[in-house]
């Protein structure tokens, strides 16, 4: 089997773990009703997941540095199965929180490891597209997993979703055993102190803040998208499922376009333009929220622009520290999850203190900050590149003069 197909296999499994993470947003109102809590309180299931993911992933990646990448994929999927089984079998909001923590830790290790494996399987000139393929697999969960989960939760029981994910997780383990080579390396464990040292570099800290504000704005809206479409736009159950499906289709196209655009036109054009469109669409969503005919295309443009930034941003971060690509991917994933947690919290606060409709313009503000930060970060990178070029050109002249 070619390496390209191995990357696609990893993307398929990424679809599964992506469904487990994203499904809560699609069934948030169902979970809230079944457990007897408010929608805003149920939204904190996403906060708990994201915080466990953000803080647990760097620690676990540091502790498992000497474990083979294939073995690490298998171990993380095994724990992933256990986490979903708890959600499916054991009742109670407390056990659901426990399930989300276990699933978050295992998902974090799998995502970072699979991104590292994919980048090693791909040739250097195709790394942007390889990362995009994994993001595509993850975003496919929005196309199939989340809308299908919405249908299952409406017709049967939302717990069946997690039971099914657990069974498919077992099948994914056997797929990894068969497909991924054991030669995709063991890495030296990276102490947390070294990981955090990268954050002291201003250009890396600024670049990571792009991820934070971009995902913050996205999460504020997406966490509560189902109640938004039901209560503000006035859609019925079928309309919400179709809307989520349309969102997912556009996410898939956007992630592939982001990888293609990065390879063809570069990081700056792809990242800044995508985030500007993202912010404008969220602002338009707040203005046109009561019209389903307008909201449907806005959902698709939002998803396309939002997910086009994913592979581009990850490629950009790797380019800033190619010698520490694994650390950069781990840090970026943690920042992303912190932003998801903050977005879910801010969105819940906005719903209770302002209104459900307010989340879209608040989210737009967050993405606008990300676009501005991207412009600053990429401008500094170009300035440093030009400075290095001048030094390299002047050095032979100084040597000759001496």
Alpha-carbon distance between the termini? Answer: 57 Å
Integer count of domains: 1
Instruction: Give the class from helix and strand content and strand pairing.
Output: mainly alpha
**Would you identify the regions where 5 or more consecutive residues have pLDDT less than 50?**
none
- Report the average pLDDT across residues: 82
Q: Major beta sheet, specifics?
A: none
CATH homologous superfamily, by name? Answer: MFS general substrate transporter like domains
The CATH architecture is Up-down Bundle
The helicity comes to over 70%
Report the portion of residues in β strands.
Answer: under 5%
Radius of gyration (Å): 21 Å
CATH class: Mainly Alpha
Which overall shape is indicated by the principal axes computed on the Cα atoms? globular
Order of helices and strands: HHHHHHHHHHHHHHHH
Number of strands: 0
Work out the helix count. Answer: 16
CATH topology-level fold name? Growth Hormone, Chain: A
Which structural traits does this protein have?
mainly alpha, globular, 85% helix, Growth Hormone, Chain: A, 402 residues
Descriptive report:
The structure is a single chain. By secondary structure, the protein is an all-alpha fold. The protein has one domain (3-397): MFS general substrate transporter like domains (Growth Hormone, Chain: A), CATH 1.20.1250.20. It has helices at 3-26, 28-35, 39-42, 44-63, 69-89, 93-121, 127-155, 159-179, 192-197, 202-222, 225-232, 237-265, 267-287, 292-320, 325-353, 359-401. Helix 10 runs antiparallel to helix 16 (359-401). The longest helix has 43 residues, at 359-401. The chain is globular and about 50 Å long. It starts with a helix and ends with a helix. The model has no long low-confidence stretch (mean pLDDT 82).
